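User: Before I run my own analysis I want an independent prediction to cross-check against. Here's the chain; please return only the structure tokens and, at the end, one sentence I can use as a sanity check.
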Amino acid sequence: MKFLIEEELKKLPDAPGVYIMHDKNDVIIYIGKAISLTKRVHQYFQASHDEGIKKNQMVKQIARFEYIVTDSELEALVLECNLIKEHRPKYNTMLRDDKTYPYIKVTLGEDFPRVLFSRQMKKDKSKYFGPYTSAGAVKDSIDLLNKLYGLRTCSRVLPRDTGKERPCLNYHIKQCQAPCQGYISPEEYKERINKALKFLNGEYQPVMGELEEKMMEASARMEYEKALEYRELLNSVKQIAQKQKITHSDGEDKDVVGMSKDGEDAVVQVFFIRGGKLIGREHFYVKVAMEDKGSQILTAFIKQYYAGTPFIPKTIMLPMAVEEQEVLEEWLAGKRGQKVHIHVPKRGQKEKLVELAVKNARLVLSQDKEKIKREEGRTIGAMKEIAALLDMPQIVRVEAYDISNISGFQSVGSMVVYEKGKPCRSDYRKFRLKTVKGPDDYASMHEVLTRRFEHGMKEQQELMEKDLDEKYGSFTKFPDLIMMDGGRGQVNVALQVLNELHLDIPVCGMVKDDNHRTRGLYFNNVEIPIDRNSEGFKLITRIQDEAHRFAIEYHRSLRSKGQVHSVLDDIPGIGASRRKALMMRYPSLESIQAATVEELSQTPSMNIRAAEAVYRFFHNV
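Assistant: Structure tokens:
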């Protein structure tokens, strides 16, 4: 039925909720929340109401809207944050990138706790420190703590597994006290963990004093190697301690936020203060409209950033007041489990700290503005070019596939994923062919695509049955476009698989010329030429090369000498001595395949008849 906006506006309730705007292609272009849905949504369609250039353009594109009623404004805020993060609408103020930060995790729930690297902060019995901006610094700190206090790094379940296996190498090089053998009591081990916790809380002086004392004692005993070891540990601690240059006497956890805007570009800078110490900083690029105010940008940033980070500080300091401050504080407090304050300091050290964050944001924006635009052109801009070529409304996620084999042996498939023009390596997948025998690329691709989408459909069904929202596997998310390494044949294979599984996903082929260079896209039975100087063409080439590289690397990883051995076993007249001679002379299966009969016959213990047998085997003669 046709959606009549005038009629649907009359049905809007006077209640809090979230409204979702769709364009003519049913793409979500804007998501917002309202205390009163009827009042807020009506405003968009009133001629006298000015929403600004960006919103006015958006209103012209609205073909229909839908809404979800909630019990409170706070519930609407939470729902709005979740939906924006999921759909990333074109006209919402958006963070340009999502980042996860590392934590140091101390597993206090274990009898013999460990100090671990973690990307997630979970509600468990562990104690977390962070977030930190440098994964390298986190790993260095963990290594230092393990060396200082002889902590275990293994995953054995203690005391259940005590004495079941021999102690590992760390015990023999004196970097672990082997609690797995009962060589250290839980009480003594707990003392070491307590010292590590103090260190992570910033108490460096006791450790430095202890190391200096041990270094001097070892030197007095003329144990110079031991003294050198203590000196290196001492220098490592000093280096970490020197990084903490900004401190605050209250010892609270704070995020200090600064923002700078220039036209449609904005950067938000965040200083992370933990335990009164500045542990790091990070900047974020934000997509904005010319007329967006600073308070609007910061409001959108707080919603998106703190919806995705597991740690919420007690205080968030801003350069200006934000919209909906009370609702934001209530929402943040619910996530933290304690009260959260959003504060705009007016004087003193806190104001200077916010000014420093603003200054840094301004500096990043001025230095990186052109770089940002170039990178966006290479990625999001290139995706838009490809979408325009294929007459598609938008392309966010692309999956590309390739097959690699040598004469049909060890056939493998690769799946690479690009999102917003950038490789999403965590979603890459490898396929070892199970049903196809011999060098049949079409049959191999049919198996790979069938396995990929059947797996994804199964995961989606399991999520629905369990009533879960999260995506627990990369296969769950289907692409906006499938790109095949080839032309009509490979595209038809993909379309056949999608038809068999009743899926509707656009498929195009990346066609190469006689020199094996990309020349165009095969889509809807037509080859579409591409400007070789365009960013879209360069992205297609990168995707094609990446799919090929990933397949080749996987294939190489499977070809050990044992696997070469098994292939040569199948050649008539090639026994153990000749097989060994071939493996000694030729470094890989490819080089054996590429050799002539004459070259093969020159291999020790090989005669002309054996050489011809090898050649015929690889060339199907």
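Sanity check: The longest strand covers residues 277-287.
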